[in-house]
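Appendix B. One record, verbatim.
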Amino acid sequence: MNSNVGIFWFAENTLVFKAQSAIDLKPDQLGFIDSTLQHQVEWEDNNIYQLFGLMLDNTDYYNFPRGRVVFNVDQNTSYVYLDKSLFKKHIVKKIKANFSLLDTNVRFYTDPHYNCFGSI
C-alpha cells in the first residue's frame, strides 16, 4: 500500500491538496484509514492555497469544490469522495497522480458533504 489519504480542493484550475501516507496511519474499527486533516483549518487557518501560488485570502473553504481520499484496508482500495463537479477526466487524473493512486484500486463517490457553494 503506497497510496495517500488526505483532502483537496479544485480552485482556479489548480488542485490544492494535502496528503499523508496511508501506511503511517492506523485503520479505524471499520477498516478505513483517514487523515485527521480538516478542510476549514487547512484553508482558513493555514492558507494552504498559498503553497500552490494562489492568492485567495479571505475566501471560505466551502466556496470551492473539494473532496477527501481515504483507504479501505479490507478491500485494499482507495475511496475518493468529491463534489460532483470534479468528476471530470482531467481532474480525476490529477487527484490520482497527487495521491499516488495510479497503481491501486480506486472508487470515486460524489458526496453532498463536499458540495461547494461557488463554482469552478
